[in-house]
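Attaching the record inline, Q. Sequence:
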Amino acid sequence: MGSGKLVRSSAESVARRAEEKATTAAALEGAEAARRLRDLASPGSPGGALKKVGVALVVAPDPVTTVAGAAMVASSYALRNRKPAGLDDLAAETRRVLRDMKSLSL
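Structure, as predicted:
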């Protein structure tokens, strides 16, 4: 009787997973969903947003914001060549940390 429950439970689990995959695939159809997934997999450069905020602060009439805005614009140019971390970078770093943890001996 125990193995029958296990088989039935496994079959139900496979059926639920198939249903969830079909629901997810149906929800991901369309250009907007594809763009959002692409942005998630490889995010844009943080320098672009930093530059926009910096320019807005420079243009603001308050003289204090001009200094902060100029620093943000300069930082955006420094960040221009840096690649933001993506999902592949996260996976590689996780593998490296796990490998290092396995090599530790207690």
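Residues 2-27 form the longest helix (26 residues). Residues 43-106 form one domain.

More tomorrow.
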